[in-house]
Design a protein that fits this description.
26% helix; 337 residues; alpha/beta; 19% strand
Length: 337
Protein backbone atom coordinates (compact mmCIF):
# COMPACT_ATOMS: atom_id res chain seq x y z
CA UNK A 1 0.00 0.00 0.00
CA UNK A 2 1.18 3.52 -0.79
CA UNK A 3 2.31 5.39 2.32
CA UNK A 4 0.16 8.50 2.84
CA UNK A 5 1.04 8.77 6.53
CA UNK A 6 3.19 11.83 5.94
CA UNK A 7 0.20 13.74 4.60
CA UNK A 8 -2.90 14.82 6.46
CA UNK A 9 -6.11 13.65 4.74
CA UNK A 10 -8.68 16.23 3.73
CA UNK A 11 -11.19 14.20 5.76
CA UNK A 12 -11.90 10.62 6.80
CA UNK A 13 -15.08 8.57 7.15
CA UNK A 14 -16.06 5.18 8.54
CA UNK A 15 -17.79 2.39 6.64
CA UNK A 16 -19.70 -0.62 7.96
CA UNK A 17 -22.25 -2.91 6.29
CA UNK A 18 -24.92 -5.51 7.04
CA UNK A 19 -24.91 -5.55 10.82
CA UNK A 20 -28.24 -7.45 10.86
CA UNK A 21 -28.49 -7.58 14.63
CA UNK A 22 -31.04 -9.85 16.31
CA UNK A 23 -31.15 -11.13 19.88
CA UNK A 24 -31.07 -14.77 18.84
CA UNK A 25 -28.69 -17.68 18.48
CA UNK A 26 -26.42 -18.06 15.46
CA UNK A 27 -27.96 -19.37 12.25
CA UNK A 28 -27.29 -19.61 8.53
CA UNK A 29 -28.03 -17.66 5.38
CA UNK A 30 -30.88 -18.42 2.98
CA UNK A 31 -28.90 -21.10 1.13
CA UNK A 32 -27.54 -22.60 4.38
CA UNK A 33 -23.94 -22.05 3.26
CA UNK A 34 -22.71 -19.27 5.59
CA UNK A 35 -22.98 -18.92 9.34
CA UNK A 36 -24.61 -15.77 10.72
CA UNK A 37 -23.69 -14.33 14.12
CA UNK A 38 -26.79 -12.39 15.13
CA UNK A 39 -25.91 -11.39 18.69
CA UNK A 40 -22.19 -10.99 18.06
CA UNK A 41 -22.84 -8.39 15.37
CA UNK A 42 -23.54 -5.90 18.17
CA UNK A 43 -20.09 -6.54 19.66
CA UNK A 44 -18.44 -5.98 16.28
CA UNK A 45 -20.32 -2.70 15.88
CA UNK A 46 -19.03 -1.68 19.31
CA UNK A 47 -15.48 -2.51 18.18
CA UNK A 48 -15.90 -0.28 15.15
CA UNK A 49 -17.33 2.65 17.11
CA UNK A 50 -14.60 2.42 19.75
CA UNK A 51 -11.90 2.31 17.07
CA UNK A 52 -13.29 5.40 15.35
CA UNK A 53 -13.67 7.21 18.68
CA UNK A 54 -10.07 6.46 19.70
CA UNK A 55 -8.59 7.29 16.29
CA UNK A 56 -6.07 10.14 16.15
CA UNK A 57 -8.11 11.55 13.28
CA UNK A 58 -11.80 11.15 14.10
CA UNK A 59 -14.01 10.38 11.07
CA UNK A 60 -16.13 13.25 9.78
CA UNK A 61 -19.05 10.85 9.34
CA UNK A 62 -19.97 7.16 9.22
CA UNK A 63 -21.67 5.33 6.35
CA UNK A 64 -23.94 2.53 7.59
CA UNK A 65 -24.59 0.67 4.34
CA UNK A 66 -27.92 -0.94 5.18
CA UNK A 67 -29.45 -4.05 6.80
CA UNK A 68 -28.89 -2.61 10.25
CA UNK A 69 -31.11 -5.29 11.88
CA UNK A 70 -32.15 -8.71 10.65
CA UNK A 71 -35.53 -9.62 9.18
CA UNK A 72 -36.00 -12.32 11.83
CA UNK A 73 -36.85 -9.53 14.27
CA UNK A 74 -40.16 -8.96 12.50
CA UNK A 75 -41.56 -12.43 13.24
CA UNK A 76 -40.42 -12.14 16.85
CA UNK A 77 -42.13 -8.79 17.36
CA UNK A 78 -38.73 -7.30 18.11
CA UNK A 79 -38.14 -4.91 15.19
CA UNK A 80 -38.29 -1.64 17.10
CA UNK A 81 -36.50 -3.06 20.14
CA UNK A 82 -33.65 -4.36 17.98
CA UNK A 83 -33.38 -1.08 16.10
CA UNK A 84 -33.33 0.92 19.33
CA UNK A 85 -30.56 -1.33 20.64
CA UNK A 86 -28.34 -0.74 17.62
CA UNK A 87 -29.07 2.98 17.38
CA UNK A 88 -28.27 3.42 21.07
CA UNK A 89 -24.77 2.21 20.24
CA UNK A 90 -24.47 4.71 17.40
CA UNK A 91 -25.63 7.36 19.89
CA UNK A 92 -22.37 6.80 21.78
CA UNK A 93 -20.47 8.62 19.04
CA UNK A 94 -20.83 12.32 18.25
CA UNK A 95 -20.01 11.57 14.62
CA UNK A 96 -22.78 12.03 12.04
CA UNK A 97 -24.16 8.73 10.68
CA UNK A 98 -25.66 8.34 7.21
CA UNK A 99 -28.00 5.33 7.06
CA UNK A 100 -28.65 3.42 3.82
CA UNK A 101 -31.80 1.31 3.44
CA UNK A 102 -31.49 -2.36 2.47
CA UNK A 103 -33.87 -5.28 2.15
CA UNK A 104 -33.82 -6.04 5.89
CA UNK A 105 -35.02 -2.52 6.72
CA UNK A 106 -38.07 -3.30 4.57
CA UNK A 107 -38.58 -6.74 6.14
CA UNK A 108 -39.00 -4.94 9.46
CA UNK A 109 -40.67 -1.65 8.55
CA UNK A 110 -42.81 -0.12 5.85
CA UNK A 111 -41.31 2.49 3.56
CA UNK A 112 -43.57 5.18 5.01
CA UNK A 113 -42.54 4.36 8.59
CA UNK A 114 -38.84 4.44 7.65
CA UNK A 115 -39.23 8.01 6.45
CA UNK A 116 -40.45 8.92 9.95
CA UNK A 117 -37.76 6.92 11.74
CA UNK A 118 -34.23 7.70 12.88
CA UNK A 119 -32.98 5.75 9.87
CA UNK A 120 -33.97 8.71 7.72
CA UNK A 121 -30.68 10.61 7.73
CA UNK A 122 -31.61 13.09 5.02
CA UNK A 123 -30.14 16.39 6.20
CA UNK A 124 -33.17 18.37 7.40
CA UNK A 125 -31.86 21.65 6.04
CA UNK A 126 -31.62 20.16 2.57
CA UNK A 127 -34.68 17.90 2.41
CA UNK A 128 -36.46 20.08 -0.14
CA UNK A 129 -33.29 20.43 -2.20
CA UNK A 130 -32.43 16.75 -2.25
CA UNK A 131 -35.13 14.20 -1.51
CA UNK A 132 -37.92 16.21 -3.15
CA UNK A 133 -35.98 16.28 -6.39
CA UNK A 134 -35.62 12.51 -6.32
CA UNK A 135 -39.28 12.06 -5.37
CA UNK A 136 -41.28 12.34 -2.17
CA UNK A 137 -41.18 8.56 -1.62
CA UNK A 138 -37.57 8.06 -2.72
CA UNK A 139 -34.84 7.96 -0.09
CA UNK A 140 -32.03 9.62 -2.03
CA UNK A 141 -29.99 12.68 -1.15
CA UNK A 142 -26.53 14.18 -1.46
CA UNK A 143 -24.20 15.98 0.93
CA UNK A 144 -20.78 17.61 0.81
CA UNK A 145 -18.44 17.06 3.79
CA UNK A 146 -15.88 19.52 2.39
CA UNK A 147 -15.83 21.70 -0.72
CA UNK A 148 -15.01 19.73 -3.86
CA UNK A 149 -16.41 16.39 -2.66
CA UNK A 150 -20.00 15.15 -2.97
CA UNK A 151 -21.56 11.98 -1.57
CA UNK A 152 -24.80 10.65 -3.03
CA UNK A 153 -26.97 8.19 -1.10
CA UNK A 154 -29.19 6.12 -3.41
CA UNK A 155 -32.42 4.22 -2.77
CA UNK A 156 -31.78 0.77 -4.27
CA UNK A 157 -35.31 -0.38 -3.32
CA UNK A 158 -37.13 2.51 -4.95
CA UNK A 159 -38.65 -0.21 -7.19
CA UNK A 160 -39.26 -3.28 -5.05
CA UNK A 161 -41.73 -5.76 -3.63
CA UNK A 162 -40.62 -4.88 -0.10
CA UNK A 163 -42.02 -2.40 2.39
CA UNK A 164 -45.13 -1.44 0.41
CA UNK A 165 -48.74 -2.63 0.22
CA UNK A 166 -49.35 -5.47 -2.24
CA UNK A 167 -52.38 -3.60 -3.52
CA UNK A 168 -50.35 -0.52 -4.45
CA UNK A 169 -49.50 0.46 -8.00
CA UNK A 170 -45.81 0.44 -7.12
CA UNK A 171 -46.01 -3.18 -5.96
CA UNK A 172 -47.88 -4.26 -9.08
CA UNK A 173 -45.31 -2.59 -11.34
CA UNK A 174 -42.40 -4.19 -9.47
CA UNK A 175 -44.10 -7.61 -9.57
CA UNK A 176 -44.61 -7.30 -13.32
CA UNK A 177 -40.95 -6.39 -13.77
CA UNK A 178 -39.54 -9.30 -11.76
CA UNK A 179 -41.95 -11.84 -13.27
CA UNK A 180 -40.64 -11.01 -16.74
CA UNK A 181 -37.46 -12.80 -15.66
CA UNK A 182 -38.41 -14.98 -12.69
CA UNK A 183 -41.17 -17.55 -13.13
CA UNK A 184 -40.53 -19.35 -9.83
CA UNK A 185 -43.39 -19.59 -7.37
CA UNK A 186 -40.92 -18.56 -4.66
CA UNK A 187 -39.49 -15.29 -5.95
CA UNK A 188 -36.56 -15.40 -3.54
CA UNK A 189 -35.29 -18.32 -5.65
CA UNK A 190 -33.08 -17.11 -8.46
CA UNK A 191 -34.41 -17.66 -12.01
CA UNK A 192 -30.97 -18.73 -13.27
CA UNK A 193 -27.97 -20.72 -12.09
CA UNK A 194 -25.36 -18.36 -13.50
CA UNK A 195 -25.00 -14.90 -15.00
CA UNK A 196 -26.60 -11.55 -14.13
CA UNK A 197 -30.12 -12.94 -14.62
CA UNK A 198 -29.75 -14.30 -11.08
CA UNK A 199 -30.42 -10.78 -9.74
CA UNK A 200 -34.17 -10.92 -10.32
CA UNK A 201 -35.12 -12.05 -6.82
CA UNK A 202 -37.55 -10.66 -4.27
CA UNK A 203 -34.81 -9.56 -1.88
CA UNK A 204 -33.40 -7.37 -4.66
CA UNK A 205 -34.64 -4.09 -6.05
CA UNK A 206 -34.01 -1.34 -8.55
CA UNK A 207 -33.93 2.38 -9.28
CA UNK A 208 -36.94 4.17 -10.74
CA UNK A 209 -36.59 6.36 -13.81
CA UNK A 210 -37.34 9.37 -11.60
CA UNK A 211 -34.42 8.56 -9.35
CA UNK A 212 -32.12 7.95 -12.32
CA UNK A 213 -33.03 11.33 -13.79
CA UNK A 214 -32.37 12.96 -10.44
CA UNK A 215 -28.96 11.25 -10.19
CA UNK A 216 -28.10 12.34 -13.73
CA UNK A 217 -28.88 15.95 -12.77
CA UNK A 218 -26.84 15.75 -9.56
CA UNK A 219 -23.84 14.37 -11.46
CA UNK A 220 -24.17 17.03 -14.17
CA UNK A 221 -23.96 19.66 -11.46
CA UNK A 222 -20.91 17.93 -9.96
CA UNK A 223 -19.28 17.76 -13.42
CA UNK A 224 -19.65 21.51 -13.81
CA UNK A 225 -18.26 22.24 -10.34
CA UNK A 226 -15.35 19.80 -10.72
CA UNK A 227 -16.40 17.79 -7.66
CA UNK A 228 -15.35 14.24 -6.90
CA UNK A 229 -18.45 12.12 -6.29
CA UNK A 230 -18.80 8.95 -4.22
CA UNK A 231 -22.10 7.10 -4.61
CA UNK A 232 -23.55 4.96 -1.82
CA UNK A 233 -26.11 2.16 -2.29
CA UNK A 234 -27.07 -1.00 -0.48
CA UNK A 235 -27.03 -2.93 -3.76
CA UNK A 236 -23.91 -3.10 -5.95
CA UNK A 237 -24.15 -2.16 -9.63
CA UNK A 238 -21.00 -3.55 -11.24
CA UNK A 239 -21.07 -7.26 -12.22
CA UNK A 240 -17.40 -7.71 -11.28
CA UNK A 241 -17.82 -6.25 -7.79
CA UNK A 242 -20.32 -8.78 -6.42
CA UNK A 243 -22.14 -12.06 -6.90
CA UNK A 244 -24.73 -11.81 -9.70
CA UNK A 245 -27.74 -12.29 -7.43
CA UNK A 246 -26.71 -9.24 -5.39
CA UNK A 247 -26.82 -6.78 -8.30
CA UNK A 248 -29.52 -4.12 -8.53
CA UNK A 249 -32.24 -5.12 -11.01
CA UNK A 250 -31.35 -2.33 -13.45
CA UNK A 251 -27.65 -2.03 -12.64
CA UNK A 252 -26.96 -1.56 -16.34
CA UNK A 253 -29.00 1.65 -16.50
CA UNK A 254 -27.17 3.08 -13.54
CA UNK A 255 -23.80 2.15 -15.03
CA UNK A 256 -24.78 3.96 -18.22
CA UNK A 257 -25.30 7.12 -16.18
CA UNK A 258 -21.92 6.73 -14.47
CA UNK A 259 -20.29 6.30 -17.87
CA UNK A 260 -21.81 9.57 -19.09
CA UNK A 261 -20.21 11.69 -16.32
CA UNK A 262 -16.64 12.37 -15.29
CA UNK A 263 -17.22 13.36 -11.66
CA UNK A 264 -17.73 9.90 -10.10
CA UNK A 265 -14.69 8.34 -8.44
CA UNK A 266 -16.18 5.57 -6.27
CA UNK A 267 -19.32 3.48 -5.75
CA UNK A 268 -19.65 1.85 -2.30
CA UNK A 269 -22.22 -0.87 -1.54
CA UNK A 270 -23.06 -3.67 0.88
CA UNK A 271 -25.52 -6.61 0.58
CA UNK A 272 -22.95 -9.19 -0.60
CA UNK A 273 -21.59 -10.40 2.73
CA UNK A 274 -18.42 -11.76 1.09
CA UNK A 275 -17.60 -8.34 -0.31
CA UNK A 276 -15.99 -7.55 -3.63
CA UNK A 277 -14.06 -4.99 -5.62
CA UNK A 278 -13.35 -3.95 -9.17
CA UNK A 279 -12.24 -0.88 -11.06
CA UNK A 280 -14.26 -0.03 -14.15
CA UNK A 281 -11.86 -0.24 -17.10
CA UNK A 282 -13.75 2.41 -19.06
CA UNK A 283 -14.25 5.08 -16.38
CA UNK A 284 -11.70 4.27 -13.69
CA UNK A 285 -14.48 4.30 -11.08
CA UNK A 286 -13.82 2.06 -8.06
CA UNK A 287 -16.67 -0.28 -7.13
CA UNK A 288 -16.22 -1.38 -3.52
CA UNK A 289 -18.59 -3.89 -1.91
CA UNK A 290 -18.04 -4.14 1.83
CA UNK A 291 -18.01 -7.45 3.67
CA UNK A 292 -20.94 -7.90 6.04
CA UNK A 293 -20.69 -7.82 9.82
CA UNK A 294 -23.40 -10.49 10.15
CA UNK A 295 -21.22 -13.26 8.68
CA UNK A 296 -18.04 -12.19 10.46
CA UNK A 297 -16.87 -14.50 13.29
CA UNK A 298 -16.91 -12.91 16.78
CA UNK A 299 -13.12 -13.02 17.03
CA UNK A 300 -12.71 -10.94 13.86
CA UNK A 301 -13.99 -7.55 12.62
CA UNK A 302 -15.59 -5.99 9.52
CA UNK A 303 -15.30 -2.22 9.23
CA UNK A 304 -13.06 0.30 7.61
CA UNK A 305 -11.84 3.87 7.73
CA UNK A 306 -11.36 5.75 4.48
CA UNK A 307 -8.99 8.72 4.32
CA UNK A 308 -9.55 11.11 1.44
CA UNK A 309 -6.72 12.98 -0.26
CA UNK A 310 -6.56 15.17 -3.34
CA UNK A 311 -5.71 12.27 -5.63
CA UNK A 312 -6.98 9.13 -3.88
CA UNK A 313 -8.92 7.50 -1.10
CA UNK A 314 -7.14 5.08 1.23
CA UNK A 315 -9.16 2.33 2.90
CA UNK A 316 -7.73 0.95 6.12
CA UNK A 317 -9.71 -2.19 6.85
CA UNK A 318 -10.15 -4.19 10.03
CA UNK A 319 -10.63 -7.95 10.14
CA UNK A 320 -12.21 -9.16 6.90
CA UNK A 321 -11.93 -5.76 5.20
CA UNK A 322 -8.85 -5.44 3.00
CA UNK A 323 -6.66 -2.35 2.84
CA UNK A 324 -6.93 -0.58 -0.53
CA UNK A 325 -5.63 2.50 -2.28
CA UNK A 326 -8.34 3.91 -4.54
CA UNK A 327 -6.63 6.33 -6.92
CA UNK A 328 -8.91 8.79 -8.61
CA UNK A 329 -9.25 8.49 -12.39
CA UNK A 330 -6.52 10.33 -14.28
CA UNK A 331 -8.92 12.92 -15.68
CA UNK A 332 -9.96 13.78 -12.12
CA UNK A 333 -6.34 14.22 -11.02
CA UNK A 334 -5.61 16.36 -14.09
CA UNK A 335 -8.54 18.69 -13.31
CA UNK A 336 -7.01 19.53 -9.92
CA UNK A 337 -3.51 20.34 -11.21
Amino acid sequence: MDDCSHRQPLFTFGVIADIQYADMDDGYNYSQTSRRYYRSSLRLLKNALESWSESAVRPSFILQLGDIIDGFNKGRGASQRALDTVLSMFDSTPVEVHHVWGNHEFYNFSRSSLFHSRLNSTPEARQSENRAQAGADIYAYHFSPVPGFTFVVLDAYDVSLLGIEESSGEYIKALKWIKKYNSNEELNCSPATWGPEQRFVKYGGGFSQKQLRWLDAVLSMADEKGDRVTIISHLPVHPYSTLPMCLAWNFDELLDILHSHHSVVCFIAGHDHDGGYCRDRDTGVHHLTLEGVIETPPESDAFGTISVYEDRMVLMGKGRIENRVLRFPQHQRDRKQ
